[in-house]
Amino acid sequence: MDRMRKEQDNPNIHGGEVNVRRIPTFVLYADEIDAMQADWLHVETIQARSRLHDYRIKPHRHEHLFQILYMREGEAQLYAGEDVLVLAAPAVVTMPPVEVHGYDFSADVEGVVVTILEREVGAMLESAPALRDLFRAPRPVALVDWPEQTERLAASLDALMAASTQPGPARNLLLKAHLSLALAAISETVTPRPDETRAAGRSDLLVRRFRGLVEDHFRDHWPIGAYATRLGITQTHLNRLCREVLGLSALQVVNRRLVIEARRLLAFTSLEVKEIAGEIGFDDAAYFTRFFRRETGRTPLTSRAEMVGAAVEGGMAETRAGRG
After folding, report:
1. Which SMART domains match (predicted)?
2. Do 185 and 239 reside in the same domain of the chain?
């Protein structure tokens, strides 16, 4: 990484340490799910988002999202945890969920940002555990010494962006194929750091195990105590770990996962609210509606209408742009 150097210039970083209390956590059912229209993958250019914020994306974190940022032109200052690095194109950054990160881009930046649901990445890498472990930490890579991999990565991401705008029965298959090729190309440029060959910190490890259990059992509505028992710790300890690592209580983690699934079903199926409630373990549709409204500020039907409306408006905008 010869073209990276440490810098210190960010209001959320003091004395080399990130001020975690000031770091916002963006979750899928709020900001991100609207942008992704409840889909499992979203692709956009770096310019599309960064120019709206004067090319500065303040330090933040995503709860259930994995990101790939590929920069083909320009420069960026990356804030990753306590590290601040300067990247010059070509470069790629992979960012797992929960990790604090932010960017200051040059105005001439060009590239692509891919945002993927964490569970989809995990499923894709199930047969490649070494790669799955590789992408569990933030990975900034200068690509100047990797021309072949850079060419394959750029081609895969261009194809991914094109496929993301094309509806059809093979869409998901194409998206996963292009994403797999992109991840494979990135993996060839990365070598695990020596300190990562050691066991992860106990707190992070326990929280990762908890989130894995949530993914497997959120529909079963386990009480938090049951998760704690499975992890071999107390409920109080589990809540403390979640607040330290995620900035959320254990119950909030479970509830947000329920909302994510509910919104996915609202957006992509014609199931009635009662049926959706049953799909995610609610016996009483009225109670589910109250739960959903408490968590999101909207009723399930209002949320469905808004997501459908956003999708229709997006399609009309693309049509108008095509005519222009």
Report:
1. HTH_ARAC
2. no
Instruction: Answer yes or no: is pLDDT of 98 > 90.
Output: no
Nearest to 97 by CA among 135, 42, 46, 145: 135
DSSP string spanning 213-258?
A: HHHHHGGGT--HHHHHHHHTS-HHHHHHHHHHHTSS-HHHHHHHHH
Burial class (CB in 10 A: 0-12, 13-18, 19+), 81: middle
Which residue type, as a one-letter code, is found at position 83? D
Distance, in Å, from the CA atom of 295 to the CA atom of 289, rounded to the nearest integer, reads 10
**Structure tokens given for 130:** 């070494």
Q: Is residue 5 part of a domain?
A: no
What CATH code is carried by the domain that includes residue 80?
A: 2.60.120.280
- Rounding to the nearest 10 degrees, give the CA dihedral for residues 148, 150, 153, 156: -70
pTM of the predicted structure, to 2 decimals: 0.56
Return the ∠ at Cα 44 (arms to 39 and 48), rounded to 5°: 130
For the chain, list the strands marked E by DSSP. Answer: 13-14, 17-18, 25-26, 41-45, 56-62, 65-73, 75-80, 83-88, 91-95, 101-105, 110-117, 139-142
Domain carrying residue 222:
202-308
